[in-house]
Amino acid sequence: MLIRRMLVVVAVLYCAIPAFSQTPKAEIFGGYSYARQGDLNINKGWNGSVTGNFNRWFGVEGDISGHYYTEDIFDPSGVNVRADANFLTYRVGPKFSFRSEESPVTPFAHFLIGGARTKVTGAASYAGTNVSVSESSNGLAGAVGGGIDIGKGSIAVRAIQVDYSMLQVNDVFGSSGTSNGLRLSFGVVFRFR
Asked: Among 24, 189, 13, 187, which Cα is nearest to 99's?
C-alpha cells in the first residue's frame, strides 16, 4: 500500500514538472509609452523593464522610462517661445502575475518605487534678444498599475500596461512639488526559461 501511494505521488510530481517549467525565469519588456504628467500630454516616450520571477505568480521588476515634451509658441507680436521637458524614471518593486496553463493571456499588477530625473528648458526670442532657462532636478518616483501580456512562447505582446505615476521633484524655481499622472505602454516581452 505504501509503495502504491509513493508511486502516485511520484507520478503527480512528474506530471507537474512541465507546468512549473512554463514559468519564465526572466522577462524583458520594451516598447512605446504615452504619459500624462500633471498638465502635460507627452506622446513621445519609451518604457522598458526586466523581471526576475521567483515562482509562477511573484517576481521583482526593474522599470525605466523616458518621456519627452516640446512646445513651440509663436506669438503674432514677434515673441517666439520654445519649451522642452524631459522625464527619466527608474523604479523597482514587486510584480504579481496571474498565469494559467490553458490561456495565453497573463494579467499582472505591480508596485514600483524609485527615482526621477527631470530637465526643463525654456527659450524665448524677441527682436533679436534671446533668453533661455534650464533646470534639472532629481526626486522620488512611484507607480502602481498593471497590464496584460498575450502569448505562450518565448515572445509575447504587452497589449496594454496602465500605471498611475507620481513624481516629486523641484520645479524651475527650486520649490518641491508632486505631479500625478498616467502612463500607458505597449510593446514586446521576451521570456527566458
From this structure: 24
DSSP state at residue 127:
T
Taking Cα atoms as reference points, which of 20, 29, 46 lies closest to residue 147? 29
Question: Which region, left, alpha or beta, applies to residue 161 given φ > 0 means left and ψ of -120 to 50 means alpha?
Answer: beta
CATH number of the domain bearing residue 53:
2.40.160.20
Cα distance between residue 78 and residue 60, in whole Å: 53
pLDDT tens per residue across span 33-64 = 999 988 878 889 999 999 999 999 999 999 99
Cα 152 from Cα 173, distance rounded (Å): 50
Cα(first)–Cα(last) distance of the chain, in Å?
38
More confident residue, 146 or 7: 146
Total domain count for the chain? 1
**Worst-scoring range by mean pLDDT, 5-19, 85-99, 110-124, 155-169?**
5-19
**Residue 57 counted as domain residue:** yes
What CA–CA distance (Å, rounded) separates 19 from 31? 29
Residue 84, in any domain of the structure: yes
